[in-house]
Amino acid sequence: DSLLVMEDVGKSYGNVDALRGVSMDVRGGEVTCVLGDNGAGKSTLIKIIAGLHAHTSGTMRVEGKETVFSSPREAQGRGIATVYQDLALAPLMSVWRNFFLGNEMRSGFGMNIAEMKRIAGEELQKMGIVIPDLDRPVGALSGGQRQCIAIARAIYFGAKVVILDEPTAALGVKQSGVVLKYISKMRDSGLGVVFITHNPHHAYLVGNHFIILKLGRVVLDAHRNELTLDQ
Ligand code: ADP
Ligand code: ADP
């Protein structure tokens, strides 16, 4: 099913057209990869989906309903989460505390520490991430594990579509592998994933659907089965 659809979306900043006529379809159980050089419009696309900017033309539909988000909170409330490169994790705080950080209101006041730890551990384990000591500060973990914690938190708090902003850009081969494996688990669990990346190899390892932006326009939109090596 389509969770998020953009039709002919444009965004201009004054007289700069950052996006022009962009259409895309994000489905549950698929990883939609968005590739493009600097200036292609990737950040602008993220900002529109995340509720930081409004598009200036075209339409966005979330689960069929035409939508313009007026804040990130509104986007989150509709099941759209964005995990930025800086992750919004507190490096000195424990894994379990980070898991609930910023969601204290939504997680209810009644939860005790043991319960929060149990949930954080279970949510991570479900997706193949085992962190033996959830009391460790997040800053002591690997970059790949940190990405996965930020993503797991978004999923636990209701994301159906997760936008990943260059999640492997700062990582080496091994840590990128941790994150890519996690992305494939997200896909298998039926989430809609938008994977923004500069790295075509990483995109190809996990992607079902590939969109290339260039100077604000979609120059390629292909599903995996449409890509062929023997043309
Ligand atoms: P990317 O993330 O792919 O590098 P951006 O979305 O940041 O691309 O930028 C797309 C275009 O929009 C670029 O030409 C950029 O200079 C311009 N742009 C981005 N943000 C702004 C802004 N706040 N004001 C004016 N121009 C902007
Ligand atoms: P907001 O509207 O959310 O306050 P802006 O659109 O002003 O944010 O800026 C958001 C980001 O876009 C910042 O990181 C800024 O550096 C970048 N940016 C702003 N203007 C431009 C521009 N002309 N070209 C490229 N990037 C820009």
UniProtKB/TrEMBL annotation:
Q: Which GO terms describe its molecular function?
A: ATP binding; ATP hydrolysis activity
Indicate yes or no for the key word Kinase: no
Q: What is the superkingdom listed in this entry's lineage? A: Bacteria
Q: Does the keyword NAD apply?
A: no
**Keywords assigned by UniProt?**
ATP-binding, Nucleotide-binding
User: Where in the numbering of this chain does the ABC transporter domain appear?
Assistant: 4-231
Q: What is this protein called?
A: Putative sugar ABC transporter ATP-binding protein
User: Where does this protein come from, organism-wise?
Assistant: Kineosphaera limosa NBRC 100340
